Amino acid sequence: MPRKTDRREFMKMTAAAGVGFWVANSYGRSMREAGPQPRRIGPNEKLNIACVGVGGRGRGNLDGVKGENIVALCDVDERQAASAFKEFPDTPKFHDYRVMLDKLHKQIDAVVVSTPDHMHAPITLAAMQLGKHVYCEKPLTRTVDEARRVGEAAAKYKVTTQMGNGGNAKKGARRSVEMIRSGAIGPVREVHAWTDRPVGWWPQGIDRPKDTPPVPDTLKWDLWLGVAPERPYHPAYVPSKWRGWWDFGTGALGDMACHICNVAFWSLDLKDPTAVECKVSGLHKETAPAWSKVVWEFPARGKQPPVKFHWYDGGQKPLPELAEGREMPGNGSLLIGDRGTLYLPSPDGATIVLLPEEKFADFKAPPKTLPDSPGHHAEWIQACKQGRQGKQYMSHFGRAAAMTEALLLGNLSVRTGKRIEWDARGMKVTNLPEANQYVKPPYRKGW
User: Fold this and answer.
1) What's the rounded mean pLDDT across residues 81-97?
2) How far apart are CA 250 and CA 411, in angstroms?
3) 443 domain-assigned
4) Pairing of strands 69-74, 48-52
5) Which domain holds residue 20?
């Protein structure tokens, strides 16, 4: 493994290498006006891909891109990464993504980011500033401000990007978007979406543990913490359980909403809500509540009316009559229009039900306007090779960042337990000043 490199040494090295690099603890400053341009790649060439985070979901993302050239693997947890490290014995391996980018930036075309939420933005922004295409797991970022910065950076550096909400590539999701846009159920004024998370998946509504067990030899704890505030290691955080802790994750809303709410945001062009309010099981400083109900208020968009968007987690669900008494599985959504309801009883929109069924018995699907996907990872890889940064592929950061920003505003309400009113242009909560501390929380010194 490469030797540990501190931040000061790393910045000296990247400056000496002649590359523009994003400094994490000052990302509020203006980014460089120009950065390295992505390498032109022929359709029959292979991308040179570096993967950061290769255990858990990262292993799945590695499998999705391993038909290309895997030129680097990076993970702070050797135990979690063992399977990937074994499969690619001759591929350079790193603990610190900064060292990886410094040493191999000339070889890397694209970076896949599959870390815990709190490290998504630092790694993604660093890669884009180096002119690298990026695939980043959902949620795109941990904070509202990061989502805005990542969206801006993607437009600025003109790299090809994709968020890892794989259901976006499903035919059902794309046909659902076409139905809504065609007016099949009329103007949509209300959306309901729900998940079974976190029940049985990870703990929430708990306090920080007080004991301090030793750090496993296989884990680089300081690098795992990254931008998060200093705290002792504990198995309550690693692996997998980090999702419920505010310093590292985004709770059930961050884990599942980018899947479940995708069709609604995509078809209705939702962004920049004006207000969010919630009901929660209780407030905890360290973790998300055991359950929450969140309501966003989205303004009219052109000819589309305002929308009230309802979210339920931790076992909460909408009233059964909204689905005409049908069974509601653990994850799903309802888009309620003036002339009918689109019911998606799956997290990715793969199954479509139009309600009331008798009204839509003779329904004919509208003309196809969205192309079928070759597969979520394949779609991104093709776009990288074809130099497409925009609308020809469907989960690019321009769209994903806006959805992530809006959804994460829900956590501002959840963390305070109060209604917030949001000024999207000014990037601030206008009625509850104490909520603004969560819009852009500080990074740990040295990061």
Assistant:
1) 98
2) 7
3) no
4) parallel
5) 7-166+382-396
The verdict on 63 and 179 lying in the same domain is: no
Closest C-alpha among 355, 237, 256, 262 to residue 315: 256
pLDDT tops 90 at residue 331 = yes
Among 365, 377, 415, residue whose Cα is nearest residue 62: 377
Q: Kindly state whether residues 137 and 194 are assigned to the same domain.
A: no
Confirm whether 358 is domain-assigned. Answer: yes
Residues 119 and 173 in one domain: no
Q: Mark 128-138 as b/e (b = at least 16 C-beta within 10 Å).
A: bbbbbbbbbbb
What distance in Å separates the CA atoms of residue 435 and residue 430, rounded to the nearest whole number?
9
- The three-point CA angle 297-300-303 to 5° equals 155
Between the alpha carbon of residue 206 and those of residues 106, 144, 345, the distances in Å are 45, 24, 30
Beta strands 48-52 and 110-113 are parallel
Say if residue 182 is in the same domain as residue 116: no
For residues 256 and 346, the answer to whether their CB atoms sit within 8 Å is no
pLDDT confidence tier of residue 12, bands split at 50, 70 and 90: very low
Provide φ and ψ at 197, rounded to 5°: -65, 150
CATH of residue 316's domain is: 3.30.360.10
- CA quadruple 376, 382, 388, 389: dihedral positive or negative? positive
Considering its fold, how many domains does the chain have in total?
A: 2
Residue 176 to residues 303, 318, 405, Cα–Cα distance (Å): 20, 20, 23
Q: What is the largest CA-CA distance in the chain?
A: 69
pTM above 0.85, yes or no: yes
> Residue 143 corresponds to which amino acid?
T
